[in-house]
Amino acid sequence: MKELIFETSLNTSHSIIVPDNIAQLLINDGHKRVVIQITYNNKSIKFHAALQKFHGLYHITFNKQNQKKLGVFPSDYFEVTLLEDTSKYGVEMPEEFDAVLQSDPEAFDIFESLTDGKKRSLIYFILKIKNSQKRIDKSLIIVDNLKRGIRDNKELIKKI
Prior knowledge:
Blueprint: E1 4-8, E2 15-18, H1 20-28, E3 33-40, E4 43-50, E5 52-54, E6 57-61, H2 64-70, E7 78-84, H3 95-102, H4 105-113, H5 116-127, H6 132-147, H7 153-156
Antiparallel strand pairs: 1-7, 2-6, 3-4, 3-7, 5-6
Helix pairs in contact: 3-6, 4-6
């Protein structure tokens, strides 16, 4: 997939619309998840996103936190570049979580059996933790809970 570039503004307070011709190129090539780069006033951010259809239009979530990083307001136009998401899980795996999973084959197999969305939600949870040791500690808790048969996300992250 080549880079797909277009200019847009916020559609809602937390999403942008992907032009139909670009969305169709992505869908036809089997790309529902992309890496998106948004550039505004010489600042740029890059993140993983899903292409979602809602009311006949394709949207990508652009959260308030990322909008604030760029200084984007609802009336602003900015450049969007879509790139192929080549990551295994549709988001970059934190090395601490990956190391914990690799060290425990049973937990790794259980993790791999989860739905793609559940895997991503656990990865996003670990990514929110800034301290490396805390990422390791929380990863160990998740792995132990997976092996206990816990599948509810709220319970998976709790120490028992």
